[in-house]
Each structure stands twice: as C-alpha cells, then as structure tokens.
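Data availability (excerpt). The following record was deposited with the supplementary files.
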Amino acid sequence: MQNTFTSARARGALAFREHLPVGSAAPDCVLYTVQGVKARLSDYFGKAHVVLQFGSITTPGSIEQLQAMEQARRTDGAGAQFLFIYVREPHPGSSYPQPTTLAERLSHARALQRAEAIAWPVLVDDVGNECYSAYGSQPAMAYVVNRDGIVFYKTNWINAAEIGEALRDLHYADNAAGNDQNEVLPRFSEKLCTFTVPVGTCARVLRRAGQDSIDDLQRAFNNKAWTLRVSGE
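Predicted structure:
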C-alpha cells in the first residue's frame, strides 16, 4: 500500500508549497462580480484581512466547507473580508460544462451563489484563469491575506478550522500591537496534512452537475468503491 505522504498527490501538495510562499505579496487580479462588474483584488487589500476561498459549482471540496466557513466568518471574522473566487470547473458535467465565455462562468457563479446561499461576495475569474493561475491552480485552495497584502496562510485544500485559527492569530497580533507589555514577533510553522472527501457532498454536487461530472471523478480517483457510492451504483 502506498504511503499517503509519499504518493503523487502528496508531491502535488508539496509543489503548491513552492508557489506563492507565505510572506509573499498577494497578487492583484482582475475579477468580476456575479453581475459582471469589473473589480480588482487590490480593491480589498490594505483595508482589512482578506480570506480567499476558491471554488466552483463542481468543486465538492470547496462546497463541503461552506457552512464551516460561515461559522468561521461569524466567530473569527470580525473586521475581515471573506471573498469566494469562482474559478474553472474541476469536474464539468452536462448541466454545468466548462465555460468558454465570461458570461457562461458568471451564470455558473450565480447558480452556485443561489444553490448554496453564499453570504459573502462572489467574484469571478475570467475564462483565461488569471487569478486561478496566479494563486496556484488548485480547485479548492484558500488563502488568508493580511491587511498589508501579504500572504499569511495558504492551503491547497480549504479547511475552515485552520482559517479561523489564522484569523485569531491576526486578531491577536492586531490587539497586542502597541501594548508595551507584549512584543509581537513572527514565527513560521509548516505541516503536511490529510483530509477526507465526503461521499455525501460529492454525490450531491456531482449529480447536480450531470453524469459527465461523475465520470470525470471516477477517472481522477482510484477508489472504485468510493466512486460507485458517489454515482449511486
């Protein structure tokens, strides 16, 4: 049995570590509101800490974390700006094919916002995938960018609990700054984590997208029993 931490997927996760390391300046990107109004990420930098959640209507890993992200926003997100960045479809299906125009991607983004009741702004990457590429080309990645526009936290697979922890660290630093009883110093922490892909969420998301989406997932994963459960067979 292959070791989880030496597998091809582990090597892919470690490659993400090298792209846009923690401490780097967060890239600016042109994005669009779901109504098609042009915006820039830099419009949000410099005003508050910013949480970037990447995903789409065929990204089970991102959708599965939405409720937990809403809880993190309510519990730890005071003064922070949460943004959902809508990117390419990892598992396109007949109901939600891979968009070839911005208008099609905007339509998919509006459908996701309605279906999942996302309470924070949804911004859409153009079909050239500028923002997706700039931040590491992972369908369920997430970042926390501090008020100075610096990457404070990143993950190739979103975890709301870790994002809440990152926000608490930032709030602690904000509150301690200027307090002559404490000196706030940076430290670096790194770990390789595991995660599970829930069958229930995958089934709901991919069946909504269509059979092609389920077929694509089956090609991507080697766990036949798991993918059969997703497809309902």
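Summary of structural features: The first helix runs from residue 8 to 18.
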